[in-house]
Amino acid sequence: MVIVTLNNILPHVVKTAKKAGAFIKKERTKFSPDKIEIKGLNDLVSYVDKGAEELIVKELKEILPEAGFIVEENSVSVKKEYNWIVDPLDGTTNFIHGIPCYAVSIALEHNGEIILGVVYEVSRNECFTAVTSCGAFLNNEPINVSQTKIVSESLIATGFPIYNFSHLENYLSCLKYFMQNTHGVRRIGAAAADLCYLACGRVDAFFEYNLNSWDVAAGALIIKEARGTVTDFKGGNNWLFGKEICCTNGLVQNEFHLIIEKHFINTPAYRNPC
User: Fold this and answer.
1) Which CATH architecture describes the domain 3-143?
2) CA 127 to CA 159: how far, in whole Å?
């Protein structure tokens, strides 16, 4: 597949994301708490997640029939050379409680590399897009990461652990440092949105552990195409399936990673989690 082809299918992926977003927005107006299902500790799902995923999968099969799927709600599971990585409703807990930040996230992966990404934040009608080597966009306007140069002047985004507490002490130590030594910390509740907010300069760095590929795939590409950096906690490339991710505007990357290393990597608790 060549870049021209990716740019040709991008509008169709955007249309699919917005179609799913319209479904989600409509269902929010009549959503009832008794429609919530429990997948695990603090891990919630609803018919809206499942319905949005079915809609997205159906549309994507028509856009690229030869592609496989990695999806959150397991409506389909088959891996091929090209794979769609889909989170139909990132920020389900926000959605259930009526908190306005939740998103549709769609990425296309090829041999471990993300080559196309779309994140549609439903509440603000913001559509973030990227195709590899073609830049990042918000509602068709080019975006770039911030120009903040030091961590002390940065706004940090993160996500709280909700069921895997194996590195909780590391996380709290890191959180304490950022609370005391930056412009502040934001926990928005939808990782895909966090990543896109970094890409367009609203925050300067992001870290979280225990995320899945569908949480980060599209947003990570958008950050890279907006001239930011994406790594795992060790500074390597195992962020897509490694369940930990560290993103920056590039300018604070070295300083930010030293802090992550101090509070996570270089501790017995991280090497030997309980």
Assistant:
1) 2-Layer Sandwich (3.30)
2) 21
